[in-house]
Design brief:
The chain is mostly helical and 180 residues long. It contains 6 helices and 2 strands, in the order ααββαααα.
């Protein structure tokens, strides 16, 4: 025997019709009210989501992309050694930038500029940049390192549509890495 769909009732009842969901007329009114409230809440959540999306600034999109990008870097470099000191990266580690984001915004989302780095090197040794450069040359090669050095001087400003597109790209890359 089915249970009454009214949240307050939940009694078992015998169906008189094949599509009957509640046990009585009173429960029918209460159930209809519950469904209207549920629908209104769902519509409000959707409307609130649209409003929040409209109010997002470029900084908000950059932050969202940074989270996805850093997750991708961590997944890509999991099991490799720290770019600076070589300690095996397990557990918590950072996505360390060789050229810092504050000074080189154009390289913020450059995969050659960001690598897995242990928390000690990244946060306590301020990136351990001398050792980072040696590790970078070994990992990406001297030609790509020189190209990175040249790109640091370029001016690059991301637009909101580019940030949205990059977020989609890195989510997809992250998903592909996790599926391997």
């Amino acid at each position: 025997m089915p249970k009454c769909k009214n949240i307050e009732c939940k009694k078992q009842f015998e169906k008189k019709r094949s599509n009957q969901l509640v046990c009585s007329v009173e429960c029918s009114y209460a159930y209809a009210k519950q469904q209207r409230e549920k629908k209104a809440k769902r519509e409000w959540r959707e409307e609130k989501k649209r409003i929040k999306e409209k109010l997002k600034t470029k900084k908000d999109y950059e932050k969202e992309l940074q989270v996805v990008f850093n997750s991708y870097i961590r997944e890509r470099d999991k099991g490799k050694g720290c770019i600076s000191c070589g300690v095996t990266l397990t557990g918590k580690f950072d996505a360390g930038h060789f050229y810092p984001v504050g000074s080189y915004k154009n390289l913020r989302f450059d995969e050659d500029n960001v690598h897995g780095q242990c928390v000690h090197c990244n946060q306590h040794k301020h990136g351990n940049l001398n050792e980072y450069r040696f590790g970078l040359a070994a990992r990406i090669g001297y030609d790509r390192l020189e190209a990175l050095d040249k790109r640091r001087l370029e001016v690059r400003k991301y637009t909101i549509p580019e940030l949205i597109e990059l977020k989609v790209i890195y989510k997809d890359k992250l998903k592909n890495l996790k599926n391997i």
